[in-house]
Amino acid sequence: MPWVSRVWRAASVALLAGLSCAAQADNGDTRIVLGVESATSVTDVAHYRLTEYLREEGCLADLRFNTQIQSLALAFLPVAPEGRSPILAAVNRNGQLPVPVWVTRRTAGVRHIRDLQGRDLATVAGTDPLGAGLPLAALKEQGFMPGAEQLYEAGDYSSALGLLLHNNTHAAVSELGFVRPFLAGNNLLVSWQGRPVEAAGWYRQAGWGQAAMVCERALLRLQREDDSQTFVIFPEWVFGFALPDKQFSEDSVQ
């Protein structure tokens, strides 16, 4: 009977679909959900390149940007959640934790960051504490805070440095490892240097499991010099990731 044939075909399709899903699970084709709080809204190329790199390293990743969902196994965050340390810390050009700095022109006569009071300053947009929060806190410790009309918010650290070099501002925020190669050739100097910061990095999330460890190992090998297009989603000073002094145990999740 025709209706019996249709029912049989539908049941067969459902059975094959179930077997296919089971086979994929048996083959380890389970996607690990990774999140990134991105430093840019242009993520298509980086999404593709990072996903492909991870796949080649044995990590089948489902990469999500700027979202908080229960299934996240790992997330790159520029700011440490309260009471947490990263499983992989973001490091600068020299493989060290980042150091926030104020940079000025050597000819500006800035002998102390107190001399920045009343001056136009370049900061970096976003939640990265090196881009504004920490350098501005250093000014507050000196007893002053620049008004909104004195702050020029750039999209990244290169743009902030460009504002300084083109005399649009009196000083710019930066990260020590990132900016050091540009100092001598551009007659710049570091007028203030903070302490190393462990904040940005990869954090284990509620969806973490043993399968995500292959992704952690792959991310540990990832370097900006190998693929700069992938790194546009991270703060510009991030050149790679390293194991911090203290690591989570395997069951340390949110």
Q: How many beta-strand runs?
A: 11
Helix/strand/pairing class, anyone?
alpha/beta
Helicity level:
25-40%
**Given the structure, what is the number of helices?**
6
CATH fold node name of the largest domain: D-Maltodextrin-Binding Protein, domain 2
Mean pLDDT: 87
How does this structure look, described?
There is one protein chain. The chain has 254 residues and is an alpha/beta fold. The protein has 2 domains: 31-94 and 199-242, 3-Layer(aba) Sandwich (D-Maltodextrin-Binding Protein, domain 2); 100-193, 3-Layer(aba) Sandwich (D-Maltodextrin-Binding Protein, domain 2). The chain is 29% helix and 20% strand. It has 6 helices and 11 strands. It has a 6-stranded mixed sheet, with helices on one face. It has a 5-stranded mixed sheet with strand order 7-6-8-5-9, with helices on one face. It is elongated. The relative contact order is 0.21.
Give a short overview.
The chain has helices spanning 2-26, 44-56, 133-141, 157-165, 176-183, 213-221; strands at residues 32-36, 61-65, 74-77, 88-91, 100-105, 121-124, 151-154, 171-175, 188-193, 201-204, 240-242. With 254 residues, the protein is an alpha/beta fold.
Which descriptors would you attach to this protein?
2 domains, 11 strands, D-Maltodextrin-Binding Protein, domain 2, alpha/beta, 5-stranded mixed sheet, 20% strand, 6 helices, 6-stranded mixed sheet, elongated, disordered C terminus, 29% helix, 254 residues
List the helices and strands and how they pair.
Blueprint: H1 2-26, E1 32-36, H2 44-56, E2 61-65, E3 74-77, E4 88-91, E5 100-105, E6 121-124, H3 133-141, E7 151-154, H4 157-165, E8 171-175, H5 176-183, E9 188-193, E10 201-204, H6 213-221, E11 240-242
Parallel strand pairs: 1-2, 1-3, 6-7, 6-8
Antiparallel strand pairs: 3-10, 4-10, 4-11, 5-8, 5-9
